[in-house]
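User: Sequence recovery, please. Input:
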């Protein structure tokens, strides 16, 4: 259930953002309709109006369908199936919401071709030279401060571990340190994106340079505020990770909640961002005399992918959505397209298949040739039976959090952390009622078989073969008994704890 709740609050907003982003393409803005260059008088044509109406109708139908589909995951108890439904759903959402746009874009291009409008279009690219390179809204100090705060938070676990190594058993400093470092690196990446967008050239929408400068300044200011808020959210999440490690008994739940809030807040920020950008477009619509995107829309495949061998730029502003996209005609663009295709068509389905195999393949414990094997998809642990100490059966598992590995309703496997105890290795089915707890080579283990019967069987085997702590004793009638630690009179043999084996016969020669 927890996976469904997480995905519901983090993935549903993605659907809303995608819907409003694609739905807005039916509105004539920036000299375009459905990413096709259009003149205002063309919009009133009956064929164009029919394309717009069809687009709006299909978008509503697909949106309602996509709202319902993922709810089926709440009827399934298996985490791998739940995640598969959500992953496949988001891919389906992208495809279905793009479909009306693709059809409308192709329809308008076909209409323009039939009316020979491409031959009458005059494509002009104009560059604003007044105050070129001087419109910069991203300043050093406002973006430096949240990154500095995130870096200091990332260094806290390192300092704590160096000052007090004993904290490693109380707080999972290694994992916390890596998480905070990752969040700091995310902040650096966000800053780089903000700087790159801020350095884009001035938009040209009017013959008056002051109009162009004010328009560009307003848009860059909106983007600057957006990236700055996201950057502080990123730093706040790093602080939540650190606070959870020191304050919360169950660190995992606090970090999980923080990540949900962080993702949800970031997605929801996109809605006012789009509204503000559209408001700017509405304000300057009357002043727009030139089309800033006056490139040939036939270079835009479905209005989404840009392919222009004559353009040497690797990245260009998007016609649909926000930000930039790759020119697929360049080597960088082709590489990016291949990578995206691999991720979407191979990596995500492969990950879903692996999760299903991971959850539905039963675990197994077996003792072979004096070695305890813990087997799942492969052999996860090999432990010499003679190294196992203090084996016990338990019916309740401690409260722990996963450091690395798998944590499902039917499978917990990997390295886990117990507060005030430290790390341990886990290999068990949480739905069982009996588990094994033992130590080997200084490491704590919690294990179980596929069911309680297998767990009991392995427990009896280990108990019968467990090697005592005093492994060698020399028993000689009438002379002292030596146990490796000193000389003990043989009369005290029955009082020596742990002496279970008597080996060797004294023949007068040293051994």
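Assistant: Recovered sequence (511 residues):
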């Amino acid at each position: 259930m927890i996976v469904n709740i997480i995905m519901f609050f983090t993935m549903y907003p993605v659907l809303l953002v995608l819907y409003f982003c694609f739905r807005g393409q039916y509105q004539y803005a920036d000299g375009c309709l459905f990413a096709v260059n259009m003149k205002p008088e063309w919009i009133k044509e009956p064929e164009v109006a029919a394309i717009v109406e069809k687009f709006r109708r299909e978008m509503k139908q697909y949106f309602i369908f996509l709202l319902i589909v993922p709810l089926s995951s709440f009827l399934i108890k298996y985490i791998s199936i739940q995640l598969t439904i959500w992953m496949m759903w988001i891919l389906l959402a992208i495809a279905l919401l793009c479909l009306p746009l693709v059809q409308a874009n192709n329809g308008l291009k076909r209409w323009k071709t039939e009316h020979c409008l491409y031959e009458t279009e005059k494509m002009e690219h104009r560059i604003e030279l007044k105050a070129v390179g001087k419109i910069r809204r991203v300043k050093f100090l406002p973006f430096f401060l949240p990154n500095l705060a995130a870096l200091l938070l990332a260094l806290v676990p390192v300092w704590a571990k160096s000052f007090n190594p004993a904290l490693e058993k109380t707080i999972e400093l290694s994992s916390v340190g890596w998480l905070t470092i990752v969040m700091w690196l995310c902040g650096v990446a966000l800053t780089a994106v903000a700087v790159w967008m801020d350095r884009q050239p001035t938009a040209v929408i009017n013959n008056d340079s002051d109009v162009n400068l004010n328009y560009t300044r307003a848009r860059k200011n909106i983007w600057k505020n957006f990236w700055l808020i996201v950057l502080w959210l990123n730093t706040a999440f790093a602080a939540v990770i650190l606070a959870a490690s020191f304050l919360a008994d169950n660190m995992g739940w606090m970090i999980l909640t923080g990540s949900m809030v962080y993702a949800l807040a970031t997605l929801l920020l996109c809605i006012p961002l789009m509204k503000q950008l559209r408001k700017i477009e509405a304000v300057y619509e009357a002043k727009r005399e030139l089309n800033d995107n006056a490139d040939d829309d036939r270079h835009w495949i479905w209005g989404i992918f840009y392919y222009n061998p004559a353009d040497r730029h690797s990245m260009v502003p998007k016609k649909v959505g926000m930000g930039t996209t790759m020119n697929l005609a360049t080597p960088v663009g082709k590489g990016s397209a291949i990578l995206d295709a691999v991720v979407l068509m191979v990596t995500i389905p492969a990950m879903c298949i692996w999760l299903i195999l991971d959850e539905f393949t039963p675990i197994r414990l077996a003792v072979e040739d004096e070695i305890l094997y813990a087997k799942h998809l492969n052999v996860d642990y090999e432990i010499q039976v003679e190294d196992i100490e203090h084996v016990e059966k338990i019916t309740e598992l401690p409260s722990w959090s996963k450091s690395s590995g798998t944590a499902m309703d039917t499978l917990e496997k990997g390295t886990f952390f117990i507060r005030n105890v430290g790390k341990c290795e886990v290999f068990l089915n949480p739905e069982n009622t009996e588990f094994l707890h033992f130590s080997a080579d200084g490491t704590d283990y919690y294990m179980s078989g596929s069911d309680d019967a297998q767990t009991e069987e392995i427990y009896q085997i280990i108990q019968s073969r467990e090697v005592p702590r005093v492994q060698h004793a020399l028993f000689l009638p009438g002379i002292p008994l030596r146990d490796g630690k000193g000389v003990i009179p043989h009369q005290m043999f029955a009082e020596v704890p742990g002496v279970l084996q008597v080996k060797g016969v004294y023949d007068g020669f040293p051994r």
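The radius of gyration is 33 Å.
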